[in-house]
Amino acid sequence: MVDLKRKQYSKEIGPHVFENQLVTRQNSGLEYIELRLITLEPDGVYEETLTDLEVCAVVLTGKATVTEGNHVFSEIGTREDVFEKIPTDSVYVSAGKTMQITTQTNARILLCYAPSTIDLPTQLIAAANNTVEKRGIYQNKRMVHNIMDDQSPVSDKLIVVEVFTDSGNWSSYPPHKHDQDNLPYESFLEETYYHEMNPKQGFVFQRVYTDDRSLDETMAVENGDVVIVPKGYHPVSVPDGYDGYYLNIMAGPTKKWKFHNDPDHEWILSRK
Ligand SMILES: O=C(O)C[C@@H](O)[C@H](O)C(=O)CO
Q1: Three-state DSSP class for 269?
Q2: Which residues are listed as membrane-spanning (predicted)?
Q3: How distant is the alpha carbon of residue 41 from its chain centre?
């Protein structure tokens, strides 16, 4: 079984360009998701020609200029820290195109990929176009920024959302899964979590488990870690005193988020 948790690192991949996370189909066993976290310093240039992947480049922090062909999205990005809890800007580029990212300051960009061969318009997903949802009651409250949900016309397969879970709350809870290609009852979407903590020394617990417990891993997840969810339920618990953030990438054969709650815990939803 592939290790589901990936620690952050810093590897210089070009002058003033650093890779901090890399999940590929080859190194993860996933079929539908890849991701790359990069940190750009001034004068750093990140360039990539997409083969059989579409990408959503999320400007996690700082400002960056993203170009593709005649498209130039200058100095996009809205925040210096994800815990400003405001939406940010992203750029979508479909397969076969060449994208370039530069910055005049410092920027951290999460590149979210899914396999695709469809030529779709390159476009800015402006922060103002993120829909914001406040979900849950009691200690199950969280805020969701939908960058590209399953109804988005922008992407072929990619779903990208970011979730803010405040101190002492749970999210991705009650536990749910989407690991069966069985619409209309359930969709098959692989998922990844890119986590950040505030304060940075914090941790969350995340469990990834299946009904038959053939997969059942509970992890202490720290700032900058990535968790891979190939299948199964995947709840997150944030300890008292800390706020949690994660960015989810989801993708599968059909861009539809139809999940199935763990029947043992679905009663949580019926509380008044
Ligand atoms: O609502 C939440 O707590 C976020 C989760 O839905 C998260 O995006 C996920 O698990 C998607 O399958």
Answers
A1: helix
A2: none
A3: 22
- Pocket of ligand 1 contains residue 59 by CB under 6 Å: no
Could you read off the pLDDT of 18-36 as tens digits, one per residue?
A: 999 999 999 999 999 999 9
Model ipTM over 0.90: yes
Q: What is the pLDDT of residues 47-99, one digit of tens each?
A: 999 999 999 999 999 999 999 999 999 999 999 999 999 999 999 999 999 99
Q: Structurally, how many domains does the chain consist of?
A: 1
Identify the domain containing residue 21 by its residue range: 5-270
Q: List the end-to-end C-alpha distance of the chain, in Å, as a whole number.
A: 40
What is the distance between the alpha carbons of residues 236 and 229, in angstroms, rounded to a whole number? 12
Which protein residue has the closest C-alpha to ligand 1 atom 5?
172
Question: Which CATH number belongs to the domain containing residue 119 in this structure?
Answer: 2.60.120.10
Report the alpha-carbon distance of residue 232 to residue 238 in Å, rounded: 20
Prior bond to 115 cis, omega within 30? Answer: no
The ligand 1 atom nearest the CA atom of 189:
12
